[in-house]
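Q: What structure does this chain adopt?
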Amino acid sequence: MVPAEFTGYFTAAATAAGVLIGLLFVAASLRPERVFGENASTGHRVQAGSAFTSLVNSFFVSLVAVIPKANLGDVAVIMAVVSLWTTARLHREAGRHELHVVLLVLSVATYVYQAVVGVTLIINPHDSNQAFTIAYLMIASFAVALSRAWALMQGRTSRHVGAE
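A:
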């Protein structure tokens, strides 16, 4: 269960994620050939997909967090597993030269840690320290999403693996 003092935070996070998902759709629709077209680069598709995955993760975790008496652990684990699967699928499509290693590692680490915290919350749903952890993980998720979306808007694909 999420302590009442987190209601405002998770409400704001769910709202922000929803708005950012909408803006990502607008950005992609302004230049659909770059992201979804027949000639779209894999790097652009991966960036858009990664941003979308991260925002959807934040949206659903935050949305469930404001439901009274809901166990945040359940949705944290489910969304972490879905996000890890989606991230793996997206990056498997990208060639080695299109990976952005730092953001990939941050994404995977965030989702794995989210799953661990989720399991902890399933076992002990009243552990308010874990609610803090989930809140900070949502910030990391937003950071990944915004980094990917910004690079996509600038028309950049991910850097070469060795260029970090």
